[in-house]
Automatic annotation (TrEMBL):
It comes from the Eukaryota. It comes from Rhypophila decipiens. The keyword Transmembrane helix applies. Keywords: Membrane, Transmembrane, Transmembrane helix. This is MARVEL domain-containing protein. The chain crosses the membrane at residues 21-39, 51-72, 84-103, 123-144.
């Protein structure tokens, strides 16, 4: 691998590490805020039904992401890593988009004051929206970066295989 490709891989790995750390921190903050809401709602006597399905869904997605990105944060540091988390990023981006839509539907447009799980606390509810947006954007950037890493790895494997088989760049045997 030439130095230009190595430098590009290093930049992609650095970006992935940064994005993964931001996703991890967003999911940790979301887990804390949503857990606080759920705990407080139960203290006030809300049943699980009155709490709202959206907040439970959001909590599950935040906790799942927190668990997965505890490991994914360190994967780009491995030399053998070639963007293998692309399918996970694609799946999680849809889940995060759904959570973002749920939180926007529940807390925006004047519904913040009376939306579940309990009245008021609009600052915390808007913080939840902000961290869903941050995590979703980082997941989108991860998809692009992982796709570039994966494509670069496939292209380098193909060119190495072609050189080993006596095939030039145009696919002609020499």
């Amino acid at each position: 691998m030439d130095t230009g490709k190595r430098a590009g891989q290093r930049v992609h790995r650095s970006l992935l590490g940064l994005h993964n750390a931001l996703i991890l921190s967003s999911s940790a903050i979301l887990t804390g805020l949503l857990s606080h809401f759920i705990h407080r709602a139960h203290q006030l006597g809300y049943s699980s039904r009155g709490l709202g399905v959206h907040i439970i869904y959001q909590e599950v997605i935040a906790v799942l992401t927190l668990f997965l990105y505890l490991f994914a944060t360190f994967l780009p540091a491995l030399r053998s890593y070639r963007g293998y988390l692309l399918p996970l990023d694609l799946a999680l981006s849809y889940l995060w988009l759904t959570s973002l839509i749920f939180s926007s539907r529940d807390y925006s447009g004047g519904r913040c004051s009376y939306g579940p799980p309990y009245f008021g606390h609009c600052g915390l509810k808007h913080a939840i929206q902000a961290f869903w947006i941050l995590g979703f954007c980082m997941l989108l950037f991860n998809i692009l970066t992982e796709a570039m890493m994966w494509a670069g790895h496939k292209a380098s494997n193909r060119s190495a295989l072609d050189k080993g088989n006596g095939v030039d760049g145009n696919g002609v045997h020499v």
